[in-house]
Amino acid sequence: MKIVNGIRRDGYMFSKHIVVQDAGVIAVLLPKRDFGRDLVLGVGGPVSRLEERQDEIVAFIREGIARHLS
User: Fold this and answer.
1) How many Å from the N-terminal Cα to the C-terminal Cα in the chain?
2) Across-strand partners of 42?
């Protein structure tokens, strides 16, 4: 539950080394739509690069969602 609470608090998830060693994804939940599915927008890549630019990536994702889907 600690992980879920962190995602809710931060508004995004950063998965690291889960599917492939040294790879990860930063993902943000998209606004609800009428088709009944929860979807996310994510950016994947080497964990080291995602960590270096984490704040910037999250800001770009949120900006894109606000501009195009809100």
Assistant:
1) 28
2) 27
Q: Which of 41, 55, 50 has its CA nearest to residue 20?
A: 50
Please, are residues 58 and 26 in contact by the beta-carbon 8 Å criterion?
Answer: yes
- The encoded tokens of residue 46 equal 């080497």
**pTM score, whole prediction:** 0.88
Burial class (CB in 10 A: 0-12, 13-18, 19+), 61: buried
Tokens of 33: 């739509």
Query: Parallel, antiparallel, or unpaired: how do β-strands 13-16 and 23-29 relate?
Result: antiparallel
Task: List pLDDT tens digits, range 41-65.
Answer: 999 999 999 999 999 999 999 999 9
Give me the pLDDT at residue 35, please.
82
Overall CATH class of domain 2-68: alpha beta
Report helix, strand or coil for 38.
coil
